[in-house]
Write a structure and sequence with these properties.
It is a single chain. By secondary structure, this protein is an all-alpha fold. The protein has helices at 11-22, 43-48, 76-82, 95-109, 119-148, 158-168, 173-181, 190-206, 217-224, 230-244, 254-258, 268-289, 299-306, 311-325, 335-340, 342-346, 355-360; strands at residues 156-157, 214-215, 252-253, 296-297. It has a domain at 54-138 and 227-260 and 273-360. It contains 17 helices and four strands. The strands form two sheets. A two-stranded antiparallel sheet has the order 1-2. The protein has a two-stranded antiparallel ribbon with strand order 3-4. The longest helix has 30 residues, at 119-148. Residues 97-132, 136-171, 232-267, 277-312 form the EF-hand domain.
């Protein structure tokens, strides 16, 4: 499940190449990062809310193409290029240091040291960075499991989890525990009750046979991170199809995948953003998800598309990422190209103005 590729370091040789290529760069092509207004928060905002929701299955899963509710993961390309080093290229980073760091990454991806990145090299890198996200999830799961396993017996019951979940929502933990122990009706609002029902369904799904509603640490990982389990990945796909499927045929048409809720657009600016959102979803549907191009996405196609361990998908992503910056059309990624299109790969525009070139030297 974990892919590790030996990446020899040639940091010093690439610095020279980067320096030679920088003078060629002009104005950066702005990469449109627009997303639907109703879409999810940025990486930084998600990190700020992480502690509050640490025992709640996250909507966002690093290195997975779709959010849990079916939105496109707008940070996907950066996640599978940077791995756990996402924070190293935030807006506050010093541009020169970030450019050098990007060239170090380039040297690691470029396994055969020919000063250009092939689709195969990018594929191996994507799989390695995805593995990093998996390892991070396992590490975090150990902490979260300990938080919901108060007696330390290595198992978490549904009732134990429910107490901790409701306590995280502001309820008195002792009162909730007493009510559950005495089989009393819990006084929670309708929305919280609906969330609990959905969570219980997921809890059942993560509970490997024989089903006992007790989750081990490994099963709890599947509960929080369904991408770690084939069965839970199928369950996540079913939930997404259920939410987007309008005619009840348990598959998705293009109109269903790109449809916008009534009242989403309030002004022209919102219309422009939504137009970009629809365009992105249409492209993803037609070029990547609908593998047989019949205009319909089945659960199997959606599962293959979302599976972060799918090597064929990783190769497709590698080709797509290279094509974004491949200005000389040689089907490879070269240092000056990755610097010029840094916003796509890192989320930060590292070559804002021509004067940056002079500052670099």
């Amino acid at each position: 499940m974990v892919w590790l590729v030996a990446m020899p370091s040639r940091q010093s040789s690439l610095y020279g190449l980067a320096a030679h290529g920088l003078w060629l760069l002009g104005l950066v092509l702005l990469m449109d990062a627009s997303a639907r207004p109703a879409n999810h928060s940025s990486t930084r905002e998600r990190a700020a809310n992480k502690e509050e929701n640490e025992i709640l299955p996250p909507d966002h899963l690093n290195g997975v193409k779709l959010e849990m509710d079916g939105h496109l993961n707008k940070d996907f390309h950066q996640e599978v290029f940077l791995g756990k080093d996402m924070d190293g290229f935030d807006e506050d980073s010093e541009p020169r240091r970030s450019r050098r760091k990007l060239m170090v990454i380039f040297s690691k991806v470029d396994v055969n040291t020919d000063r250009r990145i092939s689709a195969k090299e990018m594929q191996h890198w994507i799989m390695e960075k995805t593995a990093e996200h998996f390892q991070e999830a396992v590490k975090e799961n150990k902490l979260h499991f300990g938080a919901v396993d108060p007696d330390g017996d290595g198992y978490v019951s549904w009732d134990e989890y429910k107490v901790k979940f409701l306590a995280s929502k502001g309820h008195n933990e002792r009162e909730i525990a007493d009510a559950i122990r005495n089989h009393e009706e819990l006084k929670v609002d309708e929305e919280t009750q609906e969330v609990l029902e959905n969570l219980k369904g997921r809890w059942y799904q993560a509970d490997n046979p024989p089903a006992d509603l007790l989750l081990t640490e490994e099963e709890f990982l599947s509960f929080l991170h369904p991408e770690h389990s084939r069965g839970m990945l199928k369950f996540m796909v079913k939930e997404i199809v259920r939410d987007l499927d309008q005619d009840g045929d348990k598959q998705l048409s293009l109109p269903e995948f790109i449809s916008l809720p009534v009242g989403t657009v309030e002004n022209q600016q919102g219309q422009d953003i939504d137009d970009n959102w629809v365009k992105d979803r249409r492209k993803e549907f037609e070029e990547l998800i609908d593998s047989n191009h019949d205009g319909i996405v089945t659960m199997e196609e959606l599962e293959n598309y979302m599976d972060p361990m799918n090597e064929y998908n990783a190769l497709n992503e590698a080709k797509q990422m290279i094509a974004i910056a491949d200005e000389n059309q040689n089907h490879h990624l070269e240092p000056e190209e990755i610097l010029k299109y840094s916003e796509f790969f890192t989320g930060s525009k590292l070559m804002d103005y021509a004067r940056n070139v002079h500052e670099e030297f």
